[in-house]
TrEMBL record:
<dbReference type="InterPro" id="IPR014718">
    <property type="entry name" value="GH-type_carb-bd"/>
</dbReference>
<dbReference type="InterPro" id="IPR011013">
    <property type="entry name" value="Gal_mutarotase_sf_dom"/>
</dbReference>
<dbReference type="GO" id="GO:0004034">
    <property type="term" value="F:aldose 1-epimerase activity"/>
</dbReference>
<keyword id="KW-0413">Isomerase</keyword>
<dbReference type="InterPro" id="IPR047215">
    <property type="entry name" value="Galactose_mutarotase-like"/>
</dbReference>
<keyword id="KW-0732">Signal</keyword>
<feature type="signal peptide">
    <location>
        <begin position="1"/>
        <end position="20"/>
    </location>
</feature>
<dbReference type="GO" id="GO:0030246">
    <property type="term" value="F:carbohydrate binding"/>
</dbReference>
<comment type="similarity">
    <text>Belongs to the aldose epimerase family.</text>
</comment>
<dbReference type="Pfam" id="PF01263">
    <property type="entry name" value="Aldose_epim"/>
</dbReference>
<keyword id="KW-0119">Carbohydrate metabolism</keyword>
<dbReference type="InterPro" id="IPR008183">
    <property type="entry name" value="Aldose_1/G6P_1-epimerase"/>
</dbReference>
<dbReference type="GO" id="GO:0006006">
    <property type="term" value="P:glucose metabolic process"/>
</dbReference>
<protein>
    <recommendedName>
        <fullName>Aldose 1-epimerase</fullName>
    </recommendedName>
</protein>
<dbReference type="GO" id="GO:0033499">
    <property type="term" value="P:galactose catabolic process via UDP-galactose, Leloir pathway"/>
</dbReference>
Length: 404
């Protein structure tokens, strides 16, 4: 009964109309659910409500699969290297300091799963919802049309230590050269933190660039992100809001810059944690209100590859943008058959360090432990209140004139 009531409460925010042929238009032989538009084809799996393929023709008319994943849906659940691959991290994305938070004077301790120490052998913090976060669980397909798919999950009270039941719907839609997604979640029984995202690993060259096997050639532009959230040596927010000074390693706002352009600067050392050179940082999106996030030109990020000519502009209603430059990849995660170069010993069919980039639209990370930031209404939800909603559009184009 609660599920039916919650569906009514969510109303028009949730489900598209299911296609009449859904019963016969289920997953293919690899467990992939396909949707299509004029310029894009995408495949998703129930595990983590994950994107597994995104196909687009590059500037030479060659089809590229520009997201990392596995060839078969069954691999995601059994492969020990699964690094939140294309899924929806939840119920709280990114990191939670000391795996604890407080709501209305009550302290909660959630499953620790990162940075184990002698004092905390299971982990010093929680990343992406714990060992059994949402992107390690199977969602239910509740609607599937030619151009859209909706997944749902019911997250029980107490799972991974989070209070209250949460019901969520994840809808992906293709139209022309745009991938839209909407993530809706409703807290049905208790106040609880909710913050979702899409943890997609991108390489706009389809891992097939015969000049470099990294994504460091990709150009990134974050026009509204003159500030970022300060973090400590294990990437836990300190409470500081830092300026990205013009010309600094973290300056992607003053002009587009290749991801690899500043990695030889001394400032790059420890930028993504102790001993880490690269990016795993949350940029704040500062837009002057009022604004319409959907308006043309109001993208919060632009990623472009001069080699393939593929460009993606990201629009969202969220106020932070995490960028991870795949510093942790080590050449052991295999490419899909749809990707990379074949029979070239100089380019192994794996993802090397810096071989991809993750771009997460979300709210300010670990804000549940920083009430001074004033993010509670965007991160704490309870029964009878408004649902959590995240919306984003990834608009693709071919740019043959851009230079790094």
């Amino acid at each position: 009964m609660r599920l039916n009531a919650s569906l009514a409460a969510l109303g028009a925010l949730t489900l598209p109309i299911a296609s009449a042929d859904y019963a016969t238009n289920g997953p293919d032989e690899n467990g992939l659910y396909w949707i299509y538009s004029e310029g894009l084809s995408a495949a998703f799996i129930a595990y983590g409500a994950s994107i597994s393929r995104l196909l687009i023709n590059d500037q030479y008319g060659i089809q590229r699969d520009i997201v990392a994943g596995f060839d078969n849906a069954s691999y995601y659940e059994i492969d020990q290297q699964h690094p939140h691959l294309g899924g929806v991290p939840g119920r709280y994305a990114n990191r939670i300091k000391n795996s604890t938070f407080e709501i209305d004077g009550v302290s909660y301790h959630v499953d620790p799963n990162e940075n184990p120490t002698d004092a905390a052998p299971k982990g010093a913090d929680t990343l992406h919802g714990g060992h059994d976060g949402w992107d390690y669980r199977n969602f239910t397909v509740v609607s599937h049309t030619n151009d859209s798919i909706t997944f749902s999950i019911v997250d029980p009270d107490g799972k991974e230590g989070f209070p209250g039941e949460v019901i969520s719907y994840i809808t992906y839609t293709l139209k022309d050269y745009t991938w839209d997604f909407k993530m809706v979640a409703l807290a049905t029984t208790k106040k609880t933190p909710i913050m979702l995202s899409s943890h997609t690993y991108w390489n706009l060259d389809g891992f097939a660039n015969n000049e470099t096997n990294t994504a460091l050639n990709h150009t990134l532009y974050l026009p509204y992100s003159g500030q970022r959230i300060g973090v400590d040596n294990i990437l836990i927010p300190t409470g500081d809001i830092l300026a990205n000074k013009q010309g600094s390693v973290n300056d992607f706002w003053s002009a587009p810059k290749q991801i690899g352009a500043s990695l030889n600067d001394p400032e790059a050392v420890n930028n993504c944690g102790l001993g880490c050179i690269g990016y795993d940082n949350a940029w704040i999106i500062n837009r002057q209100a009022p604004y319409n996030w959907r308006d043309e030109g109001n993208y919060v990020a632009r990623l472009q590859s001069p080699w393939s000519g593929i460009q993606v502009d990201i629009y969202t209603d969220q106020d932070a943008f995490q960028v991870y430059s795949c510093n942790g990849q080590n050449g052991t995660l295999a490419l899909k058959e749809t990707q990379g170069l074949h029979d070239d010993p100089d380019f192994p069919r794996t993802i090397p360090r810096y071989g991809c980039v993750v771009m997460e639209v979300e709210d300010w990370i670990d804000a549940i432990n920083h009430p001074e930031w004033g993010r509670a209404e965007k991160q704490i939800f309870g029964p009878g209140g408004d649902p959590y909603v995240l919306q984003a559009s990834y608009v693709f184009s071919i740019n043959t004139t851009a230079t790094p």
